Amino acid sequence: MLECNTFAIQEHRKILSSVQSYDIKNAKTGELLGGAQEQIGFLTKALRWVVSKHLLPTSLEVREKPDDSLVFSLQRSGYIFQSRVEVRDAMGVLVGYFKSKVLTFSGGFQVYDKDGKYFAEVKGRLFGFDYRFVTEDGTVELGQVSKKIEGLAGFARELLFSADNYFLRVNLDLSDQPLAKMLLLAATLAIDLIYKSESRAYEFDVPV
Predict the structure, then answer these.
(1) Peptide bond into 66 cis (omega under 30)
(2) What is the extent of the structural domain holding 60?
(3) How many domains does the chain fold into?
(4) What average pLDDT values come out for the chain (208 residues) when binned by 10 residues?
């Protein structure tokens, strides 16, 4: 999976489900690389219908084909003001973590490596779904995330089923850095699974 530089992430369309899952594909060939599935307990599933999602913990496992072996996982505890999302490899070793910005509508957050070193900032827009991964000084773009809507009918279906397609392009300079690509892929999933829902929880936000 991490040999790829362009990813298509397709959320599964589900009705009356509080658990999110995704297909991860090669954006150029359409090949199914693997999938991501939330792993939460029965109580958390039930509470999601009555409690804001960002207040509850979540965990997401990313597995690759053909054997569904674990590649990495995302884990976040419940929080009130600022969240921390940890990325762990298949052995459970910390690879890096994300810290959300306080009161940000567009879902921007910072990415750190396992040693707490600043790796990237995720910058979004107030409207739409376009994100850039940039270095701390903003001079180097490490990757981009965009959303594809296939005409009005596709847009209507996405509204009905709350399903989205995301496309991640990783800078070719990171082609031989699987841990860097792991962090960027994890951050892309976190944008949809965690940070977009967090930003919707606030009615007064400051754009990045």
Answers:
(1) yes
(2) 6-200
(3) 1
(4) 91 74 89 90 68 75 95 82 84 90 63 91 71 86 77 46 73 92 90 64 36
